[in-house]
Design goal:
This protein is an all-alpha fold and 214 residues long. The chain is built from 5 helices and no strands.
Length: 214
C-alpha cells in the first residue's frame, strides 16, 4: 500500500515537472523565434534540441549522482545552467514581444485618432479664421459708409452690413465652440499618447516600424 502511494506521488511530481518543463520550453522557443526573426525553423530545431539536452542531463544526473565523477557532474551542472540561461532569454523574448505588440497596438490607435483630430482641428481653425476675415471686411465697409455721412444710401448699406455681421458673429460663436471641443479632444488624445509612451517608452516606440513613425 505504501509503495502504491509513493508511486502515485512520483507520478504526480513527474507530471508537474514535465508540464512545467513543457510550458517553459514553449515560452523559450517561441521567444527565441522573436529574438532571431530571420531563422524561424532553425531556431525551433535548436530550441527543441537544447530543451531535450537539458532534460536529459538533469535526468542523468538524478540517476547517476552517486556514481558519476565530480568533473562530469560539474560539467553537466554547468551545461544545464547555460541552457537555463538560454531558456530565460527565450522567455524574456516571448514576454517582451507580447508587451511591445500590445503597446504598439495602443500607439497605432492613438495615432489614428490624433491624425483625425488634427485634420478636423485644422479645418475648423480655417473656418473660424475665414469668419474673422469676413467680419473684419464688414467692419471696414461700415466705417467707410459712416465716413460718407448720414446719406440714405450710406445708412442703408451700414444697416445691411450690420445684419450680415450679426449673422457671421453668431456663426463664429458656433464654430468657436466646435473648435474648443476639438481642442479638448486633442488634449485627451495627447494624454493617451503620453500614457502609451510611458508604458513602452518613446525611444522604444520609435525603434519599431509599427509605431507612430510608420
Amino acid at each position: 500500500m505504501e509503495r502504491l502511494r509513493r508511486s502515485r506521488r512520483r507520478r504526480k511530481w513527474l507530471t508537474a515537472a514535465l508540464a512545467l518543463a513543457a510550458i517553459s520550453a514553449w515560452f523559450s522557443i517561441t521567444g527565441m523565434t522573436s529574438v532571431f526573426v530571420g531563422a524561424f525553423w532553425p531556431v525551433i530545431g535548436m530550441g527543441i534540441a537544447l530543451e531535450a539536452g537539458k532534460l536529459s542531463a538533469v535526468a542523468w544526473l538524478g540517476h547517476h549522482h552517486g556514481t558519476a565523477s565530480p568533473r562530469l557532474r560539474f560539467g553537466l551542472v554547468a551545461l544545464v545552467g547555460i541552457l537555463m540561461g538560454l531558456n530565460a532569454i527565450g522567455a524574456y523574448g516571448f514576454l517582451a514581444k507580447a508587451h511591445i505588440g500590445h503597446a504598439l497596438a495602443g500607439d497605432l490607435a492613438v495615432s489614428g485618432r490624433a491624425a483625425d483630430v488634427d485634420a478636423r482641428l485644422s479645418v475648423q481653425a480655417g473656418i473660424v479664421a475665414d469668419l474673422d476675415r469676413r467680419i473684419g471686411q464688414i467692419d471696414t465697409a461700415i466705417e467707410k459708409a459712416n465716413e460718407k455721412g448720414r446719406t440714405t444710401g450710406a445708412m442703408k448699406l451700414a444697416d445691411d452690413q450690420r445684419k450680415s455681421r450679426a449673422e457671421l458673429a453668431a456663426s463664429r460663436i458656433r464654430e468657436s465652440k466646435a473648435l474648443a471641443g476639438l481642442q479638448v479632444e486633442k488634449a485627451v488624445v495627447d494624454r493617451e499618447r503620453r500614457t502609451v509612451e510611458a508604458d513602452l517608452g518613446p525611444g522604444e516606440i520609435s525603434r519599431y516600424p509599427a509605431g507612430r513613425h510608420r
